[in-house]
Amino acid sequence: MTKMKYSILFFWVTLSCVFQTQAQDQYFTRQGYVSFFSHTPVEDIKADNNQVLSILDFETGEIAITMLMKSFTFEKALMQEHFNENYVESDKYPKAFFSGKITNLDAIKNGDVAVAIIHGDLTIKDATHPTVIESRITFEQETIVLRGKFMVTVADYNIRIPAIVRRNIAREVEVSFHFIHEPYQ
Amino acid sequence: MKKNKNNQMRRFLYITGIAILIGILVVSFVFIKMYNKPHTDVFKASPEYVLTAGEIISEFENDEQQANEKYLDKILQIEGVVSSISTYNGNSVITLEAPGTIGAVICTMEPSQNKKILGLEKGKEINIRGICTGFLMDVMLVRAVIVD
Question: With 80 as the cut, is the pLDDT of residue A164 above it?
């Protein structure tokens, strides 16, 4: 619990740092896209969230992302209900956070690479784990676009899956993201 | 006598067989029904709260926790001015702005609304009904529909 509080505090500190630096280097989106996909032989489960907030400081490479768990929509109402009530307990833990830093920023700025390596902490429920994400980074008109996917181990985040549906839900779910960051005015 | 008993046995098995079959059918019917339980039909449901974009944003900005208790998972009808319309992966997102705040109401629309959204323009005042999922910088609605 305290660990979670720290990580959330850390998140807001990152967020405010990001907002304090030079305006021309800040980029953000309030309509970022995050989805997750669980594949098992029994069934595939997919959920989308089009309301993700992401703030990027291209001067320092710091990035802060937050989203509401309830904003994930599923094809089946029952899955959405189980997800919110039993697995992520979204009344108790309404938001997920990621705060991190692009570690190869110079190479990106020089145009040497098109893949950003982001080291950071992912917080879901009351658990925080260091996470490394590789993301395609492209510059389209005025925007900075981050797009990629990574795997999340369900058990790492204190999500308990009852035995009866264990075969229906993958141990690792694939998380995809697509953020079109616009300059912050 | 023996023949009669045999007949009785056969009848018993027959009836039990039918009963088990009906049992299995009922259980699987209920199971499938539950598994396919539909989402709340936001269009048909009547909203629990009717507000303007400015009102709901200021409630969340003033006291997020209290507003969460009041509005989470509820059907809200929000009146506001369209400030942006975007589409990604088949999901349309409409943003309603309010005067005097950077906060907005971000509505992820039902796919059934895509046709209606095509005719929509920025700056138009509309009513949107959706399920409230909370607040980040903006108030969030999902499964939203346009109410005429």
Answer: yes
